[in-house]
Amino acid sequence: MEVDCFVDGLFASRAAVPSGASTGSYEAVELRDGGDLWHGSGVEKAVKNVNTVLREILVGSDVSDQGSIDKLLIEADGSGNKSIMGANAILGCSMAAFRASSLVRDVPLWQNLPGTWPDPILPVPLMNILNGGAHASTNVDVQEFMVVPYGFSNFDSALRAGTETYHALKKSLEEKGLLGGIGDEGGFAPSLQKNEDGLKLLVEAIEKAGYSSETQIGIALDVAASEFCSLNRYSFDGKEIDGSELSDIYSSWIEKYPIVSIEDPFDEDDWESWVSFTERGHDIKVIGDDLYVTNPSRLQRGIEEAASNSILIKPNQIGTVTETLEVMRIANTAGFDCVVSHRSGETSDDTIADIAVGTGCGWIKTGAPARSDRTSKYNQLLRISESGLPYAKGA
Ligand code: 2PG
Ligand code: MG
Hints:
39% helix, binds magnesium ion
């Protein structure tokens, strides 16, 4: 789903919208055609909405007034969850205007965010080098095993270290006869005896690449636990366990491995397990993705109940640039960390790289250093790094 924006009759910008495989139930609704064509995944209806209703209400707007543009889009839909026009149609328009405005104002996109933000900074990447869960056809329950190169003086060296680790992992898997295909986000996708083996493989790869797993590169997990939960029971490593048993597994992993964050450790409706795990006070980021779906009311509940201390930010979960930024503001005020994120089904659109830099959030999650849908974001961050901005080194 791609939207072009014209300013004063001339082509100004283009934005493309991603899509997720392991979506949260409370996300804004992506409009798909259903039926037989494209196995039901066509977006003709959403394209039509852009070319008719949305185009009509937007023509004549000032592209640099993002707030008004997004308000018009939200009102044109009117459903509360963007199911009428489609969050894909709406976000395409919203991001295209956002990109056009930076051209019109002649400032880089990362400097073009409405309102004031903490100082811009190059984010630490969470690089997903081993894929499981809904992103791979293997027996691994954990969806994403990521390396986090935080201990470097600039973004370029951090990205290089993460990339070298990715290739060191490939060698290890090859030696062990475990190298098969890759998963949705460009990471390797081996079948493993236990989920914990993924952690061992990452530590081995970090060290094999010549880095320290204590001071330079940590590990982040996206468990995406909603995918293997039913009625608050989790089917993990071949056993049926409850939230507190799963918490014990995480606590033991945190003791043994250099884990800096765990995303979606529990189901999106299992608030109780979230709260009690966060209460354990491990010195890591507990990140809500399917739990919050970049939605202000769900985040508000998470803040009130202390269900986590961080939030994943995906523009297409909520559907406009303005609302995405609003959620980041709420998180900032509450002292939550924000991790700006891609989707498993990506395009080469690199807007999230600029959002991560411009909001000064310090973190981005955008897959393995492989395939143009992932490397487009890393390449944009490299371009931005040429302006001399500092590196976050957040962990
Ligand atoms: C996630 C994302 C991105 P998906 O769960 O965090 O890594 O996956 O887009 O499939 O929801
Ligand atoms: Mg996730």
